[in-house]
Amino acid sequence: MDIKTASALRRLRLVSAPEAVSFLLLLVCSVLKRTTDFNAVPVMGAIHGVLFILYVIFWADAWNRAKWSGGTGILYFVLSVLPTGGFFAERKLKREAENAVIASRARKEGIVNA
Q1: Is 36 helix (H, G, I), strand (E, B) or coil?
Q2: b/e per residue, 17-50, with b = 16+ CB within 10 A?
Q3: How far is CA 58 from CA 76, 77, 85, in A?
Q4: What is the DSSP letter of 37?
Q5: pLDDT in tens for each of the 114 residues of the chain?
């Protein structure tokens, strides 16, 4: 994995969890808006909107650089629209990065010829 691909995956991973948290907070704010006088939906909506747009931009870049299959690319997008999906995306991306580091070290040591 080259440095640009690793960077694209890292950016996507770093925005996944905050995007998921903002989505959950937006849902909580929506419920509070309807049940109380507290209305933080405009603020949380804007924050979540920015994080979601960043996620989509980073997702497209990662898909392009990592050469994911259609199923993998779509999986990461679907995870972005599920309330807790960003947490699963972050965990899966972290595992993918760790596996790439292990494979890279193995190639350097001549253990694997890939």
Answers
A1: coil
A2: ebbbbbbbebeebeeeeeeeeeeeeeebeebbee
A3: 11, 11, 16
A4: S
A5: 778 888 899 999 999 999 999 999 999 999 999 999 999 999 999 999 999 999 999 999 999 998 999 999 999 999 999 989 999 999 999 998 888 778 778 888 877 555
User: Which helix (H) or strand (E) is 51 found in, with range?
Assistant: helix 41-66
Domain boundaries, the chain: 3-108
Q: Name the amino acid, one letter, at 2.
A: D
Contact status, residue 51 vs residue 86, Cβ threshold 8 Å: no
3-state secondary structure of 88: helix
